[in-house]
Specification:
eight-stranded parallel beta barrel, six-stranded antiparallel sheet, alpha+beta, about 600 residues, about 30% strand, binds (2S,3S,4S,5R)-3,4,5-trihydroxy-6-oxo-oxane-2-carboxylic acid, globular, 36 strands
Length: about 600
């Protein structure tokens, strides 16, 4: 018995563990090795690589990557003979059989690795949709849920010198308690959709930092940094060479340090998106970033950028490649989409309906485009489920942790078109307060809905209005109701806050022409935009709009053969980037703003 106990204890001591650690920010500014590229994959419809035939999780699932040792051995999978796909990338557009697939796919990649003494190695995923079990050399590194935010594990103790393997079980089945929930109007692209990176860090490293313009008067910059360990006495140096700033800070007991300093940076604006090179040094490790300085606030019904009122000329965007669809994840993809937005005259985009990839946010920042960033708390979330709340809150935390140094991000949005109820108010109330506490320097909003008091009178009444800085709502006059109603509409928005129309629009098939009352023609959409722009001009306090949407995007809910063919056709560009007539109406309207 004692012998058995000793053996068990010994085995426990030998079991190496990975650590689920908080997100390491500015990942591209660190020592990284890419694990992007060609990965083998196995489609596992019944998850037999994970559960036994009694539906119990197995100890020797596909993650151990077993190989027959003797001729008689039975092993019914072989990653090395399996097909390959490119990572990052969704599986739906890389294998025709997987176009509509929602379920489990196992992905595997081998890589050479040589440990460096005194360094830790993190395994970072930009995003995996939706549920990811990660294994390194057969051992569990961690489990993550949520398809659009980064996560990382300290895998130092799982790696070995020579060839290593990472295997990920990805499952994009939809569930009522998930965020987003079971129904949503976009393609549920599955897979490892963003970068996979190995990150080499010192045992003590700067986990995250924040640098921003705290006040316009006196031009006060505020900097804070946080280590991965709660250790006092570490020296951190901040350098902004162009501003001749060199500041030394020392961490306190919780491993963080803060400093304020006077400086006169040029302000970041859409016209002059000035970014400063910033270096943060701890020991002999330096992280570089590019950071812009601006303020964002509201005054009555106005939004003020650097103290000046601004009208947000925007457009909504889904994270889909500009030509042909599939998940986008590159500066090039982002540049093309954002250039189309610029052609419209936009200074602002709504990155709907989930946090987009970091390349897109950074490219928008370089191009002078302001951003509304949101989490997928969309439609009918499981409001009373604590795990659902925890999931939403973690996605919010990770979105903010990743993008809190982006000058162009001005609005965190916490929900879209959610049905009113006391449970929803409790959930969203808590989330809004949490967002405010995490980042008091940006505006908070959510896409609400109006309720009609009579046929032509719209009232915005939402208990959440007290908690947001900007009152935003979606409306589809001309599409989900008659376009001729537009000119008769009146609006009652009883809050002294700026108003953003977070969505309006309607569908058209590019190249389909006809009279303006014929649905799906470009003329129908053109007329709808004309009527809507005129109507929106009458809304008191209108501070911006993000019509729905830049380009046609894939959605399983859009099944009309010959017209939709699984595309939501509300783009002002087609899925191939062709301009529809509505493009010109919107461009001309924005030219007047
Ligand atoms: C909405 C949703 C958006 C849909 C859009 C539509 O209100 O927020 O996700 O795609 O309407 O096309 O109906």
């Amino acid at each position: 018995m004692r012998k058995l106990l000793t053996l068990i204890l010994l085995a426990a001591a030998l079991t190496v563990k990975a650590q689920d650690i908080p997100q390491v920010a500015n990942i591209l500014g660190r020592h990284i090795t890419s694990l992007n590229g060609t990965w083998h994959y196995i489609v596992d419809v019944q998850e037999e690589g994970y559960y036994d035939y009694r539906m119990k999780p197995m100890r020797n699932g596909f993650f151990i990557n077993a190989k027959p040792q003797r001729p008689e051995d039975l092993i019914e999978y072989d990653f090395d003979k399996a097909d390959t796909m490119q990572i990052p990338g969704d599986w739906n557009t890389q294998d025709q059989r997987l176009f509509f697939y929602e379920g489990t796919v196992w992905l595997k990649r081998s890589f050479e690795f040589h440990p460096e003494a005194g360094r830790r190695t993190l395994l970072y995923f930009g995003a995996v949709n939706y549920d990811a079990h990660v294994y390194v050399n057969g051992q569990k590194a961690g489990h993550h849920q949520g398809g659009f935010t980064p996560f990382n594990y300290d895998v130092t103790d799982l790696l070995k010198d020579g060839e290593n393997q990472v295997i990920v079980k990805v499952d994009n089945k939809r569930h009522p308690e998930d965020v987003p929930t079971q129904i949503f109007d976009w393609w549920n692209y599955g897979g490892i959709t963003r970068d996979v990176l190995l990150v080499s860090v010192a045992p003590t490293y700067v986990e995250n930092y924040k640098l921003q313009l705290a006040s316009l008067e006196g031009r006060l910059l505020q900097f804070s940094a946080k280590l991965n360990k709660a250790e006092a006495g570490h020296a951190i140096t901040l350098r902004i060479p162009e501003l001749k700033i060199v500041k030394k800070l020392t961490t306190n007991n919780d491993g963080s340090a803060t400093i304020s300093m006077k400086a006169k940076p040029q302000l970041w604006t859409p016209e002059n998106p000035k970014l400063y090179k910033v270096e943060i040094q701890l020991g002999d490790e330096t992280i570089s970033d590019e950071i812009g300085f601006r303020t964002i606030e509201t005054r009555g019904k106005q939004i003020l950028l650097n103290g000046e009122p601004i009208f947000l000329k925007g457009i909504s965007i889904h994270e889909e490649k500009p030509n042909g669809g599939g998940r986008a994840n590159s500066t090039d993809d982002a540049h093309t989409l954002l250039s189309w937005a610029k052609e419209l005259g936009c200074n602002y985009v709504r990155l709907a309906h989930y946090p987009h990839n970091e390349y897109a946010v950074r490219e928008a920042e370089r191009m002078g485009i302001l951003v509304w960033s949101e989490i997928p708390v969309y439609w009918t979330i499981a409001w009373t489920n604590p795990a659902t709340y925890a999931n939403a809150e973690r996605q919010l935390d990770d979105m903010i942790a990743r993008d809190q140094n982006r000058a162009n991000v001005i609005i965190w949005s916490i929900a879209n078109e959610t049905p009113h109820s006391a449970e929803r108010d409790t959930f969203l109330g808590k989330l809004a307060k949490h967002a405010r506490q995490l980042d008091p320097t940006r505006l908070i909003s959510m896409a609400m809905e109006v309720t009609g008091a009579s046929n032509y009178h719209n009232i915005l009444h939402d208990n959440m209005s007290d908690l947001v800085d900007v009152v935003s709502f979606n409306q589809y006059i001309g599409w989900y109701r008659d376009v001729n109603d537009a000119s008769k509409m009146t609006w009652e928005i009883p809050y002294d806050k700026p108003v953003i129309i977070s969505e309006f629009g309607g569908g058209a098939k590019y190249g389909l022409h006809g009279p303006k009352n014929q649905r799906w023609t470009e003329e129908f959409q053109e007329n709808l935009y004309r009527e809507n722009c005129a109507m929106l001009d009458k809304i008191d306090g209108l501070a911006g709009t993000t019509p729905w949407i830049l380009k046609d995007f894939r959605s399983p809910r859009r099944v009309l053969t010959g017209i939709q063919d699984y595309y939501n056709r509300k783009g002002v560009f087609s899925d191939k980037g062709e301009k529809k007539l509505a493009f010109y109406v919107l461009r001309d309207w924005y030219a007047t703003k």
